[in-house]
């Protein structure tokens, strides 16, 4: 009897269980047309899992992370036959925690606000970016002398870490970023091209650019129909004598008021510039070009006329 997994087909968390199932020889089927927020609210689904999380129908109340471990039991038994040591299993658990708390979490804190899932804050992005670079730097050092995370073959740790790196490579980890961690880059492409990985994930294309910050449009205000009021008859005003002074003429409008509204808000750029303490080129300069509006502003290159001006800070 095949296991049935209730989740969407492109869910990277589901990839972990499906790849583990391929290595374990366990058949797993996906529910067709599963929609998170719709399918998991039906009475039939809530009967299987009252909290409405994605699960497997054979092992009730099992989340995808635990399902991944369940499907890997057979794989672990095979590893035991290969004289796998207990501390190797501890290392597997250690790398799985590393993948979840250091890699997956920081990729999400960097990516999801830019996709509009959470409020964007430049300071929070800077912290996540620095933490992710630190984690991948540590991983790069380990992989400099290791093909796999633990031992000399694929383990559950490799499956979990690769699936967590997958969303990063697909969405935000550009080639210029991964060029600083070549062993992580080599490791990822080695893993996703393994037959059991490729059967589940398919072909992977690396992101070409960091996605811009999504700005939510302000909801349009409903215009209430104006009530037609009957105008009261105006009293007749006596004609003024010609000798009285004429009323002052309205002041001419400023020509700048006639320009169309500008998309770039200078205060947003100033705030990003002043709050960026590290990774200035990746955060502040990149943010400037994302905000820049060539129709409303122009850039000028200026030459200093004296040596004194070059030594003074403009801020």
TrEMBL record:
Gene Ontology molecular function, alphabetical: glutathione transferase activity; translation elongation factor activity
Region listing for Disordered, in residue ranges: 211-259
Domain EF-1-gamma C-terminal: residue ranges: 252-315
Lineage top rank: taxon: Eukaryota
Statement: the UniProt record of this protein carries the keyword Protein biosynthesis: yes
Transmembrane region(s): none
SMART domains: EF1G
Keyword Cytoplasm: no
Biased amino acid composition, Basic and acidic residues: 219-241
Protein's name according to its UniProt entry: Uncharacterized protein
Organism in which the protein naturally occurs: Paspalum notatum var. saurae
């Amino acid at each position: 009897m095949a296991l049935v997994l209730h989740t969407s087909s492109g869910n990277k968390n589901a990839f972990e269980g499906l790849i583990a199932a391929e290595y374990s020889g366990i058949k797993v089927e996906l529910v067709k047309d599963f929609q998170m927020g719709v399918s998991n609210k039906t009475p039939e689904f809530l009967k299987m899992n009252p909290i409405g999380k994605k699960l497997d129908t054979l092992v009730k109340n099992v989340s995808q992370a635990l399902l991944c471990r369940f499907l890997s039991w057979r794989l672990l038994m095979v590893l035991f036959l290969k004289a796998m040591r207990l501390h190797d299993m501890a290392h597997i658990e250690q790398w799985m925690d590393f993948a979840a708390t250091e890699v997956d979490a920081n990729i999400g804190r960097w990516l999801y606000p830019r996709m509009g899932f959470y409020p964007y804050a430049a300071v929070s992005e800077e912290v996540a970016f620095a933490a992710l670079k630190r984690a991948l730097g540590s991983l790069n050092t380990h992989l400099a002398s290791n093909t796999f995370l633990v031992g000399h073959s694929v383990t559950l740790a490799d499956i979990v870490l690769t699936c967590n790196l997958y969303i990063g490579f697909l969405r935000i980890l550009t080639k210029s970023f991964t060029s600083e961690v070549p062993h992580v880059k080599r490791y990822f492409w080695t893993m996703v091209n393994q037959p059991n990985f490729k059967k589940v994930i398919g072909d992977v294309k690396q992101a070409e650019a960091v996605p811009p910050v999504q700005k939510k449009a302000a909801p349009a205000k409903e215009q209430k129909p104006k009530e037609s009021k009957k105008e009261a008859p105006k009293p007749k005003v006596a004609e003024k004598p010609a000798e009285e002074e004429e009323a002052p003429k309205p002041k001419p409008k400023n020509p700048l008021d006639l320009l169309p509204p500008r998309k770039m808000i200078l205060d947003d750029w100033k705030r990003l510039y002043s709050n960026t303490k590290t990774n200035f080129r990746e955060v502040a300069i990149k943010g400037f070009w994302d905000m820049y509006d060539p129709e409303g502003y122009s850039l000028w290159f200026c030459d200093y006329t004296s040596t004194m001006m070059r030594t003074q800070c403009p801020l």
